[in-house]
Structure formats: structure tokens, C-alpha cells
């Protein structure tokens, strides 16, 4: 399943979840897709390349479009031996088209690579694991020469009346100009545009529509609507795309954030896509389990640390009214890391793919970038500024932020709409929490963050699951619960702060390389309030008590 709803009724779509042939290190395997290759006993720590192959049958000649929701971390895709795509980054989708495929059997080959090195500026040894494989779903489509590339939905309100702008991008792969009609249907209203699409080009068609009796999307009432778009040529319906949208407005004013005019407060978790037996290829069942646990603890928000998430998880957030901070892929990169010659382009591609593909999700209310990167440097500032500008050029409707740990030295706080900081009082730094918080806020207010909303993007402590100790020493479950309690009580009672995200929801695997092993028992980040199997620690009930209030 690639989304939690059907996305096409006219376009032929088949999902390629299942067993693929796989080869790595000279051995052959039958490998499930989606999955991490680390789930196989031979490949538990394998960092290298692996080749997947799959035969597909086409009943009529046509253009094949493959959509990969995630390959970790680099993919080269071949169709009948011809290379049709190269993609870097495990966490963003990409597609590839093979034109004029004949009826019969064809071969899809994917060479996946999860190695570290200069070619990979974002996937580096880090406090999370870079797995290998086709780790998210794959779909196989037959598309006409002229097809719908994507549809973006932008709601807005005048008084109590809702309207929306619907932007449809049409791609013409044929060698002649085509006259097409684009019909949209949403909430009982239809639009119709006729446009000409020159050969070999992409044209965006815009429709604006007013609506009646709309039920807005909000955390408490996450109303969703299906947006059906159909493309017709000479009166024949030849392609379609179904999106799911919500009517909601996100605003930042008076140092607060609002949805549809209602002030919001985020009680959230940082959640890595990592589950003990799944690796980063978290199954839908485990996504739902994670969501059930977070909501059981009273959370209303999630931060997709530190990369764009599987779209099915964002679909779940849309359905449940969970507020999402989605961010591009970066964690703790120094200025030397950011000077990797591939860094800026790989960030730009990640931001483009994140927004291009996730734009319509009402649950995403803020875009984040560059978690704890070199925002204390002038060169880092240049890159932060460039990335914020890219986001605003693609989406002016959502605020921006970045989680900083460059306390008292950050020179980028004037750039985002919302200022966020990571601070581990009484874990990494034993100090009076309230006093330290006040110093942080005072510094923010005087360093570019004046009148901006403030989010505590990370707060927490470590505990090894099952380690209880009446001394309440660090790494005991008792101490983790104490530290989380003490921090939440301070942060949740400060009116400067509009949200707090606990680091982190669940324990996650980290890379042994890069010296991380020395700070991370079991080669895991053990700051989850549940462990990697989602077994709750004492802190689970502490969070439930404090978030549940
Ligand atoms: C940082 C970082 C997280 C995690 C955390 C920790 O704030 O953003 O990814 O590494 O520290 O566990 O120390």
C-alpha cells in the first residue's frame, strides 16, 4: 500500500510490494519489498550495494511509470537494462518513466547503495542508522503520453467562506502539442480548464473555486475531502489523480501559532522511523501502533526527526488530527560536513521532493530544516537562508523553523518564522531548569527571535529499558521519568513556549562508526519513552500524566 487511499481509478496502477530477487556480496536472496536488507541474518550490519530485480508483465504497449517512495540511500533504476533514474536520499520519493514499452515481460532492476563517503553528504555515521534497501513501497503504472504529474491544493478563507486554489501540472511526452481538458471535483464543486500543452513540456493549470458548507480540518475535527482530477483529450478521460486534502489555515502572529484562528499548543514526540525488526521500513501496522501509543500518552504532535517521513504515516496524521513538523534530512552537521560539495544540492533536492510530494497534507503545519547544523557560522547562515528561501518559494502557506543547539552563538534566529531549540537540562547539563530556560529565552528574544513563537524541539533523557535502580541514577528508568517530568513542568508552564517535543518516542539504532558506540549503549539511542520494541519505560506514564492534563 503506497497511500492510505486509492490515488487512481483511470490510470492503471499495480503495487510491487512482495518478493524480489536480490544479490549482495555474491550471494542471492529472495528479499521482501519494502524492507531493509539488514533483516536478513547475513546482512545485519551490511554497508554496501545490493541489486534487486523483478519481472513485470505488460498486457498492452504503453509508457511505464515507476514510483519509489524510498530507497536507502541511493538508487539506480534500470528498465530492461536501460538506466531510467538515479536518486539520492532514503527519505524522499522519486519516479522514473520508461517510454513505449511493448506488450510482454520486462525487467526492473534497482541497485541500492547505503555506503558512506563524500558522495553522501546527508547519510553519514550518526545518532540514527542508515539502513539499506527498497525500504518504502513501490508502484508500477501505465501512463498515457500526456499525464497528470501532480496536483497541489491551497485552501484559503474569506470570513467564513472557504475557497481553494487547485494547481494541476500536466506533462506531455508526445511529439505534438496536445489540447487537454482538466476537470476537478471536490466537495460537490467542479472546475473545468482547457489548456494546450506543447510537446515535451510541463504546464501548470490553475483553478480557483469557492465552496459551501465546508467542515474545516483541525486537530479535534480532522475533516478530509477527496480531490479528484481527471484529464481528458478529445472528450475521452485518459488519466486521473486522486488526492486527499483538508481546509485549514496556519498562521503565526503575536508569538503564537494558530489553526483556523484557534491558538495551538504542541505536545509532541520526536519520532525516528525505526522499529526493532523493521529497521527504517516501518510497517503500516507498526506505524499505527506508534500512533496509538503517542495518542494514548496525550500527544497531539510529532516531529519527523530528522527527515521527511513515509507518506502513509503523514496520511495517518491527517486522519487523526496529529500536528506535524516535517523537516529535511540533516542531523548535527558541522560546517565541514556542510562544505561537502554534494551538501547544498542534496539538501535542495530533499526540500524540493519533500514539499512537492507532501504539500497537500493538512497535518503538516511547519517545515523544518538542518537540525543542529552549523548555524553559528556565516557560511552556515548563507545555507540556512538559501534553504528557508527555497521553502518559501515553494510554499508560502506554512511557517518555517530549525532546531538549534548553538546556544548563545546561533546567528540565524532572525531567518525562520518560529524559533526552536534542543536542550537537555539535567541530562547533559545539570542546572536549574527554569533559570536555564529563562536565559535561553532571553537570548532568543535578543538575537533575532523577538516576538517569534518558541518551540522546545527536544527535551529528554536516556534510560535502558528494564534498568530500574532505587538510586534513580542516570540511565535508570526512574531518573529518565524524573528528568522528563521536571522539564515538562517548567516548559509547559511558560507562555513564551508554544510547544514541546520529547526526545524521543522510541529507542532507535545508531551507527557504530563515527564513535557513536561510546555514548550509546547497545548502539542505540536510548532516550525513547518506549524501547525499540515499543515496550514502555516508567516515563511512559509520566508523559501520559503531564500531556494528558
Ligand atoms: C540532538 C539531536 C538528536 C539526538 C539527541 C541526543 O539534540 O538532535 O538527534 O542525537 O541530540 O540523543 O543527544
Write the layout of secondary structure elements.
Blueprint: E1 12-15, E2 18-24, E3 27-33, E4 49-58, E5 62-68, E6 74-79, E7 82-88, E8 94-101, E9 104-113, E10 138-143, E11 146-158, E12 161-172, E13 178-186, E14 189-197, E15 202-210, E16 225-233, E17 236-245, E18 250-253, E19 256-259, E20 262-263, E21 266-270, H1 284-296, E22 301-303, H2 311-320, E23 323-327, H3 335-338, H4 343-358, E24 364-368, H5 378-394, E25 400-401, E26 403-404, E27 419-422, H6 433-445, E28 454-459, H7 477-491, E29 497-502, E30 508-509, E31 524-525, H8 539-547
Parallel strand pairs: 21-22, 21-29, 22-23, 23-24, 24-25, 26-27, 27-28, 28-29
Antiparallel strand pairs: 1-10, 2-3, 2-4, 4-9, 5-8, 5-10, 6-7, 6-9, 11-12, 12-15, 13-14, 13-16, 16-17, 18-19, 19-20, 30-31
This protein binds alpha-D-galactopyranuronic acid.
Alpha-D-galactopyranuronic acid is lined by residues 127, 305, 331-332, 371-372, 405, 422, 458, 503, 525, 527.
Would you kindly provide a brief summary of this structure?
This protein has 549 residues and is an alpha/beta fold.
Account of the 3D structure:
- This protein is of the alpha/beta class and 549 residues long.
- The protein folds into 3 domains: 12-141, Galactose-binding domain-like (Jelly Rolls, Sandwich), CATH 2.60.120; 146-245, Immunoglobulin-like, CATH 2.60.40.10; 265-547, Glycosidases (TIM Barrel, Alpha-Beta Barrel).
- It has helices at residues 284-296, 311-320, 335-338, 343-358, 378-394, 433-445, 477-491, 539-547; strands at 12-15, 18-24, 27-33, 49-58, 62-68, 74-79, 82-88, 94-101, 104-113, 138-143, 146-158, 161-172, 178-186, 189-197, 202-210, 225-233, 236-245, 250-253, 256-259, 262-263, 266-270, 301-303, 323-327, 364-368, 400-401, 403-404, 419-422, 454-459, 497-502, 508-509, 524-525.
- The strands form 7 sheets. It has a 9-stranded parallel sheet with strand order 25-24-23-22-21-29-28-27-26.
- β11 (146-158) and β12 form a beta hairpin.
- α1 (284-296) runs parallel beside α2 (311-320), α4 (343-358) runs parallel beside α5 (378-394) and α7 (477-491) packs parallel to α8 (539-547).
- The radius of gyration is 24 Å and the shape is globular.
- Bound molecules: alpha-D-galactopyranuronic acid.
Amino acid at each position: 500500500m503506497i497511500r492510505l487511499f486509492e490515488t487512481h481509478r483511470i490510470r492503471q496502477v499495480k503495487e510491487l510490494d512482495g518478493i524480489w530477487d536480490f544479490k549482495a556480496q555474491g550471494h542471492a536472496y529472495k528479499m521482501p519489498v519494502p524492507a531493509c536488507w539488514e533483516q536478513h541474518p547475513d546482512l545485519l550490519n551490511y554497508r554496501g550495494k545490493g541489486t534487486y530485480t523483478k519481472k513485470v508483465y505488460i498486457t498492452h504497449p504503453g509508457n511505464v511509470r515507476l514510483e519509489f517512495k524510498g530507497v536507502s540511500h541511493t538508487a539506480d533504476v534500470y528498465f530492461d537494462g536501460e538506466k531510467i533514474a538515479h536518486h539520492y536520499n532514503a527519505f524522499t520519493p522519486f519516479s522514473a518513466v520508461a517510454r513505449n514499452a511493448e506488450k510482454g515481460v520486462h525487467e526492473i532492476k534497482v541497485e541500492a547503495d547505503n555506503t558512506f563517503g563524500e558522495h553522501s553528504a546527508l547519510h553519514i555515521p550518526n545518532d540514527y542508522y542508515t539502513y539499506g534497501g527498497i525500504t518504502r513501497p513501490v508502484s508500477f503504472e501505465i501512463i498515457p503520453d500526456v499525464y497528470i504529474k501532480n496536483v497541489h491544493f491551497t485552501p484559503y478563507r474569506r470570513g467564513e467562506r472557504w475557497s481553494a486554489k487547485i494547481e494541476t501540472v500536466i506533462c506531455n511526452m508526445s511529439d505534438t502539442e496536445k489540447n487537454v481538458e482538466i476537470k476537478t471535483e471536490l466537495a460537490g464543486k467542479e472546475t473545468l480548464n482547457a489548456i494546450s500543452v506543447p510537446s515535451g513540456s510541463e504546464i501548470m493549470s490553475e483553478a480557483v473555486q469557492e465552496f459551501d458548507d465546508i467542515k474545516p480540518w483541525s486537530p479535534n475535527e480532522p475533516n478530509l475531502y477527496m480531490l479528484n482530477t481527471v484529464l481528458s483529450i478529445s472528450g475521452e478521460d485518459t488519466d486521473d489523480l486522486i488526492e486527499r486534502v483538508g481546509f485549514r489555515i496556519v498562521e503565526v502572529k503575536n508569538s503564537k501559532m494558530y489553526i483556523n484562528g484557534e491558538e495551538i499548543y504542541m505536545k509532541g514526540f520526536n519520532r525516528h522511523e525505526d522499529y526493532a525488526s523493521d529497521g527504517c521500513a516501518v510497517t503500516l501496522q507498526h506505524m499505527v501502533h506508534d500512533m496509538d501509543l503517542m495518542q494514548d500518552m496525550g500527544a497531539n504532535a510529532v516531529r519527523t526527526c530528522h527527515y521527511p517521513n513515509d507518506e502513509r504515516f503523514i496520511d495517518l496524521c491527517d486522519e487523526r488530527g496529529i500536528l506535524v513538523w516535517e523537516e529535511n534530512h540533516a542531523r548535527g552537521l558541522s560546517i565541514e560536513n556542510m562544505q561537502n560539495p554534494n551538501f547544498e544540492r542534496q539538501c535542495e533536492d530533499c526540500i524540493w521532493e519533500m514539499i512537492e510530494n507532501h504539500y497537500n497534507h493538512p497535518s503538516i503545519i511547519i517545515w523544518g530544516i538542518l537540525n543542529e547544523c552549523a548555524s553559528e557560522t556565516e557560511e552556515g547562515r548563507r545555507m540556512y537562508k538559501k534553504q528557508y528561501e527555497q521553502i518559501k518559494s515553494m510554499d508560502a502557506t506554512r511557517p518555517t523553523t530549525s532546531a538549534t543547539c548553538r546556544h548563545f552563538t546561533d546567528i540565524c534566529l532572525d531567518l525562520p518564522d518560529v524559533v526552536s531549540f534542543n536542550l537537555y537540562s539535567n541530562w547533559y547539563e545539570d542546572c536549574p531548569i527554569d533559570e536555564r530556560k529563562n536565559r535561553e529565552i532571553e537570548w532568543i528574544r535578543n538575537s533575532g527571535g523577538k516576538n517569534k513563537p518558541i518551540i522546545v524541539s527536544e527535551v529528554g533523557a536516556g534510560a535502558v529499558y528494564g534498568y530500574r535502580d532505587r538510586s534513580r541514577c542516570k540511565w535508570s528508568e526512574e531518573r529518565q521519568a524524573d528528568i522528563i517530568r521536571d522539564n515538562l513542568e517548567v516548559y509547559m508552564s511558560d507562555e513564551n513556549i508554544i510547544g514541546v517535543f520529547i526526545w524521543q518516542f522510541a529507542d532507535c539504532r545508531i551507527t557504530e562508526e563515527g564513535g557513536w558506540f561510546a555514548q550509546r549503549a547497545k548502539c542505540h539511542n536510548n532516550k525513547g519513552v518506549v524501547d525499540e520494541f515499543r515496550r514502555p519505560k516508567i516515563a511512559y506514564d509520566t508523559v501520559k500524566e503531564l500531556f494528558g492534563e
